[in-house]
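Project standup — Tuesday

K.O.: blocked on the structure for the chain from last sprint. Re-posting the sequence here as requested.
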Amino acid sequence: MEGGSVEDDAWYLDMEDRLDKPLAETEQARWMARCIYRVPACVKDIKSKAYTPQVVSLGPFHHGDPDLLSMEEHKLRAVRHVVRRAGITARGLVAAVGEVAEHLECSYMDLGGEGRGPRTWGRRSFVQMMVADGCFLLEVMRTDAGNQVGDYAPNDPIFSGHGLLYTGPNIRRDMLMIENQLPLLLLKTITTVEGGNSSSDAFINSMVLRFLSQCSPTPPTEGGLCLHPLDALRRSMLFRPYHVAYRNRNHKDAQKSDIIGSARELYEAGIHFKKSNTNCLDDISFVHGVLSLPQVSMHDSIEVMLLNMMAFERLHVGAGHGVTAYVAFLYNIIDKVSDVALLRSKGIIQSAIGSDKAMAILFNRISRDTVIEPGSALDAVQREVSGYYRNNCRRVLNGWWINLVDKYFQNPWTIISLLAAVVLVTLAVLQTVYTMLSFYEHQDN
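H.V.: unblocked you, prediction finished:
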């Protein structure tokens, strides 16, 4: 049939218009600034609540959610306190954030430029939201650090010691979600307008880490200002820069990592476990039969933290795979409750979330679709462990010895009983030999 319908022509013209766009250079520039993402449905299937804020929205993705609206009035109160304390005007603060608004918009997936997503943001409303969210987050972190004594009422529901005692853990949890991030450029811009010496990259990074972590993490020393709070925490938990950790990624023989036994099986094969020198998640090594693993504290938010860090590594090109590889490695060696118990006995796992069974279930749940990148440093460790484990002669001998130690040398009373049994058996054997010798000597006479 010649020709086409009007609808066909309209479709063709629309497609031509869509395709008539710059390609590589424009796309690369557009994606380079992006660092805050919506989590795909296939990833959320693991546990959707782990990616959804419960108390406060930070940024545009969850702004306006009915369950989070109660915090909006506290955001406006935070703006008023910041403005009055610094002796600046709200107009000046909004203008300063407006100067970096384009960069902030581009930080969010499908928000800046074309393809703004399900909600269309005008520049004015976006800047107002950024100012309110940024001031709120700064005031929460300052209050937690004890830097706002007397500035808020002692019975303030949020910005007081009592308020943060109950809301602080929930706010921390919401700050871990990749969909609920604020660019740290926003916090730096606001503190710069306030004046003082609290607007350096290192100060902003450290302030965020002090609030998010309860174990005094080491602030990142490379790369300047972190992208957002989740990025700051993730970078503080990794030991090796990406280009060093993945030094063998182009190795021609890099294939899928060898499968290794569970922690208990490795232990029975003669592999010993000990804590690494640091708590960095990628500080894993295997030397002379000793597998060193970082100590990790299993707290209430550990699942949310790890899932969102893995989502960030999956979506952000160039972030590396340090956290994902760590979870994949632990999944390989944690199969049963006895594996968790072994790692806990060696001080590698510290639990505040329940039983060993709960931890085993947690790691098996969150490790879905996780992989160790072929040719990476951790892949090399796994291959070395696998080769050691496959040595059957060593495994049988060491397994016998370790079972003996576990059964008889863990309790002083069992040690005493075993020694007594050995002595009795030895005396019985000696008596038998002596009797036989006496018998044959009598026969000879």
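K.O.: great, moving the ticket to review. The first strand starts at residue 272 and ends at 275. Residues 242-397 form one domain.
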